[in-house]
Amino acid sequence: MSDAAETSVYFHSAIARALKDSGVTTIFGLIGDANLYMVDAFIREQQGEYVSAANEAGAVIMALGYASVTGRPGVATVTHGPAVTNTLTGLVEGVKGQLPMLLVCGDTSVEARGHLQDCAQRELIVATGAGFEQLRSPATLSQDLAIALRRAVLERRPIALNVPVDFQWQEVTYRKVARAPPTAEGRAPTGAAFDNAVGVIAAARRPVILAGRGAISQESREALVKMAERIGAPLATTLRAKGLFRGEAFDLGVFGTLSTPPAAEAIQSADCLIAFGAGLNIFTAALGAFVKGKRIVQCNTDLSDLAQVYPVDAALAGDPAAVADAIVRALDEAEIPASGFRTEGLEEALAAFSPVAGLPDMGTSTTVDSRRAVYRLGKAVPEERTVVVDGGRFMGSAWQYLDVPEPRAYVHGINFGAIGLGVPYGIGAAVGAKGRPALVVCGDGGFMLGGLTEFSTAVRHGLDLIVLVCNDSSYGAEHVQFRNKNMDPSLSTFAWPEFADVARSLGGEGLTVRNAADLDAAEAAIRTRTRPLLIDLKCDPDHMPPIPL
Questions:
Q1: What's the CATH code of the domain at 119?
Q2: Which pLDDT score is estimated for 113?
Q3: Has residue 361 been placed in a domain?
Q4: Which of 123, 219, 246, 280 has minimal CB crowding within 10 Å?
Q5: What torsion do the CA atoms of 300, 302, 308, 314 make, to the nearest 10 degrees?
Q6: Number of independent structural domains in the chain
Q7: Residues 284 and 217 in one domain
Q8: What pLDDT shows up at residue 184?
């Protein structure tokens, strides 16, 4: 803890200053009775950046998008009551995505009995799985804020700091307090668990190294590449670590239900899986098919993250880079030879694979194939971009046909399986990674549910946002279920407005793609964009690719 000189200020100025002193430079939110003066002070007195969302739900998702691309806690602020209840889906999303976020929320006065907006905020927030910190008094502001931010980082989830409205104009003595969270950097296990892991790896003849979101630092990447070369193993990532090994000759890409045919063949023939920073969920494991018959070594920072879904042969708690380096040293000392799994044939197969080669065109004269359209338009977007994927039947079109330069350039928008989070996630990503366009892929239902209002936010703030709407005029996942039962799917279909017209009316740019011939104009629009751009891809609900899950 470090303390600065004491200063007497109003509470709303003190909390703005405490945020800035804690390293917060950007806040997403909506103002109301309980936070308007704090936001004003953050902008005017602390020269902070404030992104004003159209809905509290969007503000929280924006903060999560910011956290996803920066690795630092996102910060959102809302007032009390219904503003807090609007954040609940976003809080669950952040918990499931293990994203650090601070929600500074107002609360009604403890003296105001029967306040119209009073509700049990602690109980609601805790029910989402998020953490809760009550700001105890104006005098404890700096300590309480520092603790909340520290918890967000260590617990990898949203933490709400509850601030009663009464405090705003009270005078307080401000004192800077900083509480830096500890890290696991450089920590490597020793003893029987480590020896067991080394033994499993030494005995492997066809090992594969898998990296998850917990192993995406540059240090981890370098250590895992070195280890893979040492033991002769191909490399792979989870979806959320997409792009980590880009450029490596033996990069299998995404490990799991999204694996390419040559990658899947190599994974299924492997006899050992060495996972770093990966939870090994059912999708990574391809519903169990990709872990069957393999000995598994799993390394994560925390023991609680190990063997949650599938049993493992060796579990190691430690820093991925340090553990990988320690394994290489142990193998060198024992003079264990490389496996030889990195063959010339595998390298050639990986290099030759094209995701669209031989792909049948499901488009018509009035619709496009979402896979081919997304792939082609993705080529028109600069390579240094952030890709954000909303929820819906179109997801595979983005996951399988869009590349990212590195893992933090991929934002996973369906940790909770909710639709409509893509555009606000993209706004947070565009703010957090300035200079890099945010490419959002969403469905028509998701755009109407959460993207429409926040597209206006992107316009107001002049953000570099490109939204591809895979528009089959239906709730696709439900549409296909009706079809599979030979039932009328009309309950799942909608006559939406023309999204390109809506985008232009909101101050952005809009374009409609009705067939493959229209893609030329869409590519040109991407290259010449000056404002947030929406491209409406007309698709046929009966000719959409299945979700590759």
A1: 3.40.50.970
A2: 73
A3: no
A4: 123
A5: 50
A6: 3
A7: yes
A8: 63
